[in-house]
Design brief:
6 strands, 10 helices, binds magnesium ion, single chain, Undecaprenyl pyrophosphate synthetase, six-stranded parallel β-sheet, alpha/beta
């Protein structure tokens, strides 16, 4: 048991942690808050292996960690969260693991749309981004139910990338541009970044501010390649996703917020100097 998990077992400790977290979040809300944050939730299998658990238990622990982090995101005021829940490459994993991940997606999607659960409490619209054609029918039913039931929620967005890769996102966008054009012919001069972006899965989302990957691996693994090109802070965290505690994410937010506040002050200063 880790030190933080051990401390949590003390009576009243949960209340103290929740109180300290609430104060910390009030502080965060006073500064600039990112509008869009994405996560590569890496390290679930290593977490399972180290604790002699089954792989599917590692992924379930990963979902619990996601629920804690999402709660924090929406409490702080982050409008859009995008998570890498299943890469197209993950179909190459053992069938038993793929089935376990599909089952987690099916059951957890139905859980988070329950009255009083995450989507309801924070007014979250759930969107599933990726290749629908690769998803088994029972999981697709849960996806359609959760997206339909939450489509009118306007406070926040949860993008679940499933099954997704960035290169497929770009290819899908290009195919859509061609198929929507007259006679399937597009004037090459008319294709620009803006047009491609307008046909990507994240077309309605604000620009990506922070991309976090856990587990100490420093790669993007075909995730948010297009979306992270501009003004996006990439943070590689050296802890496994199920152990990614809200305070760790809080310190990333604090760092980002202080950096942005500095940039805004600089812009103001330059504007004042121009006026003089
Ligand atoms: C990467 O760790 C994690 C995944 C491939 C799956 C992540 C999925 C969840 C946390 C569940 C999310 C469910 C919903 C409905 C949003 P890994 O398996 O690559 O672990 P390793 O790096 O230790 O091998
Ligand atoms: Mg991994």
């Amino acid at each position: 048991m880790g030190i933080t998990s051990w401390i949590r077992t003390f009576p009243l400790m949960q209340y103290f942690i929740a109180w300290a977290q609430e104060i910390f979040m009030s502080v965060l809300r006073t500064g600039p808050v990112p509008q869009h944050v994405a996560f590569v939730m890496d390290g679930n299998r290593r977490f399972a292996r180290r604790r002699k658990l089954e792989v599917k238990e590692g992924h379930s622990a990963g979902f619990e960690s996601l629920a804690r982090i999402l709660e924090m995101c929406y409490q702080v005021g982050i409008k859009t969260v995008t998570v890498y829940a299943f890469s197209i490459e993950n179909f190459k994993r053992p069938p038993v693991e793929v089935e376990a991940l599909m089952e987690i997606a099916r059951t957890k999607l139905l859980q988070i749309i329950h009255h009083g659960d995450l989507a309801d409490r924070f007014g979250i619209s759930i969107r599933v981004l990726g290749q629908r054609s690769l998803i088994p029918p029972d999981v697709l039913t849960a996806i359609d139910k959760s997206t339909e039931m939450t489509k009118d929620n306007t406070t926040a967005i949860l993008n679940i990338c499933f099954p997704y890769t960035s290169r497929d996102d770009i290819v899908t966008s290009m195919r859509e541009i061609v198929s929507l054009s007259e006679d399937h012919k597009v004037d090459p001069d008319k294709i620009d970044e803006n047009m491609i972006e307008q046909h990507m899965f994240t077309r309605d989302c604000p620009p990506l501010d922070i991309l976090v990957r856990t587990s100490g691996v420093e790669r993007l693994s075909d995730f948010m390649l297009w979306q992270s090109h501009q003004n996006c802070t990439v943070e590689f965290v050296d802890c496994l996703w199920p152990e990614f505690e809200p305070w760790r994410f809080g310190s990333i937010l604090l760092k980002w917020s202080r950096q942005k506040a500095k940039e805004y002050r600089q812009i103001e200063l330059e504007a004042e100097q121009k006026e003089l």
